[in-house]
Amino acid sequence: MKRTPGDVDPSTNEKLAAELGDFRTLWFGGFKTGYKTKRNQRQIEDYLRSTLRRDHCVLEIGCGGGQWSRFMAELGVLRRLYCIDALSAFHNNFWQFVGEDKRGLVEYRQVSDFSLACIPDRSVDYVFSYDVFCHISLSGQREYLQNLRRKCVTGAQLLIMYADPAKYLRSEPENVDFVRSYLPGGDSVSYGSVDELIGAALADCDGASSPGRWYWVGIERFVALAQEAGYEVVARDLDIDKTNPLTLLRFTSR
After folding, report:
1. What does residue 160 show for φ and ψ, rounded to 5 degrees?
2. pLDDT, tens digit (0-9, with 9 covering 90-100), for 182-231
3. Whole-angstrom distance, CA of residue 41 vs CA of residue 201
4. What is the distance between the alpha carbons of residues 32 and 85, in angstroms, rounded to a whole number?
5. Domain extents in the chain
6. What is the Cα–Cα distance from 170 to 165, expressed in whole angstroms?
7. CATH number of the domain at 10-251, please?
8. Which of 47, 60, 111, 132 has a C-alpha 20 to 30 A away from that of 23?
């Protein structure tokens, strides 16, 4: 049966609330990804600079301390930038970093669910999210993709980074313990091979929440979620970030 945007399966409500609640203990002062070589954030900025257009209304999901928010606001072309986060602007030290002078352009909204109720319907031309969906379970990602349909104009583009364990470990094989740490049993569980570990990570992509955990949804499953929600997959992975996928979607119809 086709989902209605905003219609959350009651069985997932408690789980998603717990995931959002876990963020409230983290990153006081504003999380920022920094500028890491394999993440290639400068090239992501170049891509956004070449893609965002004058009068675009942009929605940034999980703005944190405003690393990307400030960059996009300072491009000087956007009509509106909605920044949403599970944490408050005070917690994230957001306005101190982005600049009080940006309040006319930027609207910050603290959210307590995945409904996107604070964003006007049919208003968003571009969605950007980095270092956020990797902390959201399969159930949460499904809710976001479904609910974004109501917020996007026809032709809107969505650029979303999330976690794929195979790509991550190809890029950063030294971090195998990081992948294992979030799985059931944590460091006490041994895996016979990297492929076995990758399989376990993918299998737990809708597992129990914990503060700061990564959910390894993977490219195949994320693309399937996007197609299920009715998006055109423009690029499965732009491959700018060498550690994590950046999938480009387009919303084409209601």
Report:
1. -130, 130
2. 899 988 888 999 999 999 999 999 999 888 899 999 999 999 999 999 99
3. 25
4. 13
5. 10-251
6. 8
7. 3.40.50.150
8. 47
